[in-house]
From TrEMBL:
Domain of life: Eukaryota
Entry-linked Pfam families: Kre9_KNH (PF10342)
Signal peptide region: 1-21
Keywords assigned by UniProt, alphabetized: Signal
Region Disordered, annotated ranges: 128-148
Signal recorded as keyword: yes
Domain Yeast cell wall synthesis Kre9/Knh1-like N-terminal: 29-121
Species this protein is from: Mortierella polycephala
Keyword presence, Signal: yes
Name of the featured protein: Yeast cell wall synthesis Kre9/Knh1-like N-terminal domain-containing protein
Length: 192
């Protein structure tokens, strides 16, 4: 009985820590957003990171989806900063050297990896040309999304560390949900 109580307390503690991790919920950029290279653009978020300890002024990085994973755009440092103490907005500058594309996202790491939805950047710099289709590594828990570029079709699968093309910021939800499910299953198995 003591073992069961301790195990349930541990499982509840693990679930509480997962639930308290706050992903930023972006109002901008969203999937319908189109930014222009060389211009100032807006990043807006509707919640805070009050449970985050430490400095709440965090760098915003520009990422691009490659082979189903989000990677920081090579050669581009942070495009701005965001203070997540409270909901708000900030301006970021998109370098003129960023190529056109429809698989960009922003990332702010506030204890969790808070990705935005995928969005488009228009530029005078053409998107790099590739031949053939690119397929992301398969996962068993992710939904399949297809992104069509001007000359290339890329079939990708999103994971907890890569954002989907939906307007909500559910990028980390899969990670948190999977962790919570694993803790519950492990606790139930130990009770048997």
């Amino acid at each position: 009985m003591v073992k069961s109580t301790a195990l349930l307390a541990f499982a509840a503690s693990a679930l509480a820590s997962v639930a308290s991790a706050k992903l930023l919920s972006y109002g901008e950029p969203i999937a319908a957003t189109t930014w222009t290279a060389g211009k100032q653009e807006s990043v807006a978020w509707s919640n805070d990171c009050s449970d985050f300890t430490g400095n709440t002024t965090l760098p915003i990085t520009l990422n691009i989806q490659q082979n189903g994973l989000q990677v920081q755009v090579p050669g581009i440092g942070p495009i701005g900063t965001l203070d997540c103490k409270k909901p708000g907005s900030t301006k970021v500058t998109i370098p003129a050297t960023v190529a056109s594309g429809d698989a960009y996202s922003i990332l702010v790491v506030n204890g969790e990896q808070s990705y935005s939805a995928l969005f488009t950047i228009k530029s005078t710099v053409p998107a790099p040309s590739t031949s053939g289709a690119t397929t992301a590594p398969a996962t068993t828990t992710a939904a399949k999304t297809t992104t069509a570029a001007a000359t290339t079709t890329a079939a990708t699968k999103t994971t907890g560390s890569a954002p989907s093309a939906s307007p909500s910021n559910g990028a980390g939800a899969l990670k948190a949900g999977s962790t919570a499910a694993l803790v519950v299953v492990a606790a139930a198995g130990l009770l048997l």
